[in-house]
Amino acid sequence: MPELPEVESARRVIERHGLGRRIVDVDDTDSYECRPHAPGEIRSALVGRRLTVARRQGKSMWCETSGVGRSRQEGPTVGIHLGMSGKIVVADGRGDEIDGGDYWERGRAPGDFRFSRFSLTFADGGSLILVDPRRLGRVRLDPPVELLGPDAREVTPGRFRQLVMTGTAPIKARLLDQNSIAGVGNLLADQALWLARLHPARRVSDLVRSDVDRLHRALHRAIEAAIGGGGVHTLSVIPFRKPAAACPRCGAPMQRGTVGGRTTWWCSNEQRA
User: Fold this and answer.
1) Non-local CB neighbours of 184 within 8 Å, separated by 6+ positions
2) What's the rounded Cα separation, in Å, for the pair 28 and 39?
3) How sure is the predictor about 101, in pLDDT bands with cuts at 50, 70 and 90?
4) Which of 13, 40, 51, 108 is a Cys-bridge partner for 63, taking CB atoms 3.0 to 4.6 Å apart?
């Protein structure tokens, strides 16, 4: 599933090529992807407006919209959730990709929109498309973003300590709780805990301040590395999350278990319980 770095990359695609362009058509006919809205509801709300700002908090992304015509009254926000396999692709009027990653590099010809679940068409002929082969994404108006926890990339050390050092949950489960810290998924959590040399099942009540501060720094390093590298799959410990693998730092066997309901890997030597 896309984690914070992938969603941030998608947000930047919208920011680079989707803002300030007048919307003249919307394809919201996929009633599952656009639930709970009926077909045409999102279209009616957006035609004539422009995307003004692309925002992200954790794994959630949304765009603010302008008024229609000369109206200064802002329009609704448009929430876009990528799901398991969603990508934001920006194309020109001929269907040629302008931005959005490797969608057409996977053997699809320009203009092949078979997995388009939602799209905006701009007055200049270009389009912004949610490409989602597994159809697990979602588009909705005015999503409840106020329910999200602080963004994992932006949270301060002090706030991070407050959020982490409460209760008795395993530290990995706390990292995965989007209401506590928004944006951390399974792979990002494993990378951060490996960098911080913390066992994923260790109870947060057993951590001291230096542990949590080290984890905060490790999480930030992991996020920036994933954004720079193109996604969480590029992180350094991820290739070693497999049977018979050795820790790339010390050579000890990697171990596997389930923490917080998720498959988890850690170094048997440096991440002792």
Assistant:
1) 3, 4, 58, 152, 175, 176, 192, 219
2) 6
3) low
4) 51
HSE, side-chain direction, 13 A CA sphere, residue 45: 19
Q: Is the pLDDT confidence value at 104 over 50?
A: no
184, two tokens: 């951390």
Length of the chain equals: 273
Give the C-alpha separation, 154 to 82, whole Å: 21
Tokens at residue 57, please?
């908090």
Number of separate helices (H) and strands (E) present in the chain? 6, 11
pTM of the model: 0.88
Q: Which residue do the tokens 């994992």 mark?
A: 152
Query: pLDDT band at 72, cuts 50/70/90?
Result: confident
Question: Which residue ranges form the domains of the chain, and what is each CATH number?
Answer: 4-146 (3.20.190.10), 149-267 (1.10.8.50)
3-state secondary structure of 182: strand
Quote the CA–CA distance of 100 and 104 in Å, as a whole number: 9
* Bond from prior residue into 36 cis (ω within 30 degrees of 0): yes
Distance CA 270, CA 273 (A): 9
Amino acid letter, residue 235: L
